[in-house]
Amino acid sequence: MFQNVDREGWSEDIGCYMENGGYEELRKALTMERTAIVNEVKASGLRGRGGAGFPCGVKWGFIKLDEPKPVYLICNADESEPGTFKDRYILHQDPHQLLEGMIISSFALGVHLAYIYIRGEFPTGAKILETAIAEARAKNFLGKNILGSGFDLEIYVHRGAGAYICGEETGLIESLEGKRAYPRIKPPYFPAVLGLYQCPTIVNNVETLCNIKHIVRMGGAEYAKIGKPNNTGTRVLCVSGDVREPGYFELEVGAVTMGELIYDLCGGMKPGRKLKAVIPGGSSAKVLRAGEKYKIKTKQPDGSTGEKEIGIEDIVMDFDSLAAVGSMAGSGGVIVMDDSRDMLWTLNNINEFYAHESCGQCTPCREGSLWMKKITERMLLGGGVERDPAVLKNVADNIAGRTICAFGEACAWPTQSFVAKFKEEFDSRAGKPVPPPMPPEYLPEELIGKEEAHA
Amino acid sequence: MSAPQMLNVQINGEWKQFPKGTRVIEACAQAGSYIPRYCYHPKLTSPGNCRMCLIEMGMPKMGPDRKPELGPDGRPVINWIPRPQISCAQDVAEGMGIRTDSPMAQECRRGVMEFLLINHPLDCPICDQAGECKLQEFSVEYGNGGSRFLEHKVKKPKKVAVGPRVTLDAERCVLCSRCIRFMKEVPQDDVLGFVDRGSYSTIAAHPNRQLDSNYSLNTVDICPVGALTSTDFRFKMRVWFLKETKSFCTSCATGCNTVIGSRQEVVYRQTPRENNEVNSVWMCDYGRLNFHYLHSERRLSRPAVKGEAAAWPAAIAKAAAELRSVPANEVAIIASGSMTNEELWLTKKLASVLNITLHDIVPHIEKGDDLLLSADRNPNTAGAKLLGVSSSKLAEIAQGVESGRIRVLLVLGEDAAGISLAKLKSLVTVGLLPSAATEKASVFLPSAGFAEKRGSMINVKGRLQRLNQAIQPPGEARDDWEILRDLIQAVSGANGVYAIEEVFRQMAEATPALAGLSLSKIGDLGVQLKLE
Hints:
The structure holds two protein chains of two kinds. Chain A is of the alpha/beta class. Helices cover 40% and strands 16% of the residues of chain A. Chain A contains 18 helices and 13 strands. Chain A has helices at residues 14-19, 24-30, 34-44, 56-61, 87-93, 95-109, 123-138, 169-176, 206-218, 220-223, 258-265, 319-324, 343-357, 363-380, 388-399, 407-421, 423-428, 444-454, and strands spanning 71-77, 111-118, 154-159, 201-205, 227-228, 231-232, 234-241, 247-252, 275-279, 288-289, 293-299, 305-311, 333-338. The model of chain A has no long low-confidence stretch (mean pLDDT 93). In chain B, the strands form six sheets. Chain B has a seven-stranded mixed β-sheet, sandwiched between helices. In chain B, strands 1, 2, 3, 4, 5 and 6 form a six-stranded mixed β-sheet that branches. A three-stranded antiparallel β-sheet of chain B has the order 7-8-11. The model of chain B has no long low-confidence stretch (mean pLDDT 95). Chain B folds into three domains: 6-111, Ubiquitin-like (UB roll) (Roll); 149-239, Alpha-Beta Plaits; 304-528, Rossmann fold. Chain B has helices at 24-30, 103-118, 134-142, 178-185, 217-222, 285-289, 312-323, 341-353, 381-386, 394-403, 436-439, 480-492, 500-510, 519-522; strands at 6-11, 14-19, 54-60, 78-80, 85-86, 96-99, 160-161, 166-168, 192-195, 202-205, 228-230, 243-248, 257-263, 266-272, 304-305, 308-309, 331-335, 358-361, 408-412, 426-431, 443-446, 455-458, 463-467, 527-528. Chain A binds chain B through residues 163, 180, 182, 185, 187-188, 355-364, 366-371, 374-375, 378, 385, 387, 391, 397-399, 401-404, 435, 438, 441, and chain B through 46-52, 54, 83-84, 86, 89-90, 107-108, 111-112, 114-116, 118-119, 148-152, 154-155, 174-175, 193-194, 196-201.
């Protein structure tokens, strides 16, 4: 995926891309049967790289070969999960890799109109994509009768307006239709059945779509040999935070452990600092605490399952292992924190983000996200009362699993995990037996001023 | 039509059957387990956003043969879904299991209830919705005694004139989007929407627009809380003091079913009442607010002879004398399409005992719409036609009155319809409010408005509906049918009619379309007639 990112002598124009073998997989794909491509993707075991890790081939399998309605493909380039910065590199430096992946995918799915929904904060990326699309059109990789195959496809870039919720696929679809990005209820609005304009729609992440090109090149079975079973391919991990050399790392899924990632690839912690916690898959993933022990099931050579205890450094960076320790691989954004970090401050920072980004459609997330933020903020300012940690946990529990979209979990998981795993830090800031008097929202003079202005 | 397919559904442990296509939330209500809800409304689409109706749901556990595994009771074993599900957006399915009161479902409701109240102003003492507020109702069952919320509440706009007839208090709003969906889906005027995000989300009208549809007040009805209130009704009366009288709207020929809310002989509001044959659950603002004239300061409530107050017996006697003072062919009757069938029947009877052949109603045709408002603003044109009071003689009557050929005119519930009354010898007027026909009246007889009397009317689709009396007529004003009965008695002697039921009975006996009916048989939802 990242072979061309930051490569010396590489540029994002189509000439450079084609000199390096670009669009060869498209030529190959156009000679294949549509179902053959879908079967290769299924065989590859590719899992979605957006955050949920849903098997891509299964998703594609929902689209009927003889679907009478138009089928749409949407590339989700609304990369907004805090701690994640992989898609932007592809968009900025290797746009044709994405386009080629999308054209192949569109061909396989019978799509004639595809969209790239790019977040509003990526204006440069949008421009680069527009240029790349124009270049691809000029070479007849897009447009009518692509390379004489009889296959037509247009790709449009749609810029978002700066809302995290547009990364949720049904919210994205609503936004693309020109409405507020309110996620839809599922059932009945599964995108593969009732998606964009109520037509079958596949929404895939940038990285996922880039993988398609490589699956066509290698064949699904060969691709599946990369990584581990059920965790195939490569993964771009974005490491940020308190390591000496943060950055992106494209690795075979499961090739490294957390410890190897932090200490070998990222050069370890900053001088004199110790690892305190890691958020392994974007800010909504549950935090992992240094020194924690996890019991995970292992497969013995004889086929029986055993159990072993591992520490945070031993966690293998793949979908299943991170799920087994109660967190998730998510979007690949690994946020490392050292012992100088205040966990209450960190949680408040995350809560602030989610309270600001909650779309407000459904009750638990709308009201709960802001409430959690207000509690952590008050605690941070010294007004924590004894019951605050318990209330925080309970509020988060009342959000997770009860909302229309996964934002509910995204905003609840940090609070649930921070409060549980750094209990002493939260308890020590929640010392007051009774609530302190609330600071006035308005000074009396301001209130009088408001009244007068009103009259 | 074939019977709908019935599906077996387990609700709180009991297996019941429901027709295919039944919403889970409706099925549970039918089974006696009402599920609280804010955003769900049976006449609108389901957005599933309030999360109040979360329940525990499961589907039959499938065996290796892809057939449901059966338990010891021979019923499918249910695989319960670990996450709660909303019940407002899904239909029941064969073998579905539902738990509405399980710990999970109860905890969900408590959680949502608390979330809805943390930023709510809790100003029930001064809120018009108090007493019919779903936040209050569900708080009783699922609310907490105290609040865990120590923070400042979110401030939002209050007292917003979101339209000419609707006032918004955004702090009370639970953002259920019923009003938005109603405007989009029913009057198809997509004027409302959300602005801002998260907990700061607020309902607003589109920039440079107002909620000024003729159906805007329905948003107040369906608002489950006190966010949208009727500017007309606001702060007028606590709803629990209102006496509710089932009736229908008489402002046009549609006859939307209503509930009249009154207290101590004053009507405070009219709200629509469900009748899927007539108005679904909606009504237009024009009809809804068209009752204030009942309490107008100009309302006439004393009989008068030549402008001087008179006692009823004297006024009736004088009116009868005037009607007989000239030959019958010099007398005409202008009746009204807003009279009840009973009144029209007695009008026809009066005409026949006096041999008056010139009688008609005054048409009121204005602009209608495709939804509920009929172009025919007379609520009982069909009744006047059925009972033979309307004819095509209005022009002839007008011409006769203006030329002086007609010398005595009886006007019932209308003004003079633009006719010059100068040449009349005498004019007898029955009505409510001053008009050209009351000013010049030799005898004026004050009558009752639609909320002050009983009777029946036939709407534009031939549906016979019943008015019920909500309040007493003011002062000495009397029910119209009694006035007409007394006039008939005064000109032809006693006829033994003492109750409106008797009028209906006589009318039904003489009118084939009404055969076998009585006022009580009409019921609250009316009866469809077969009219030619």
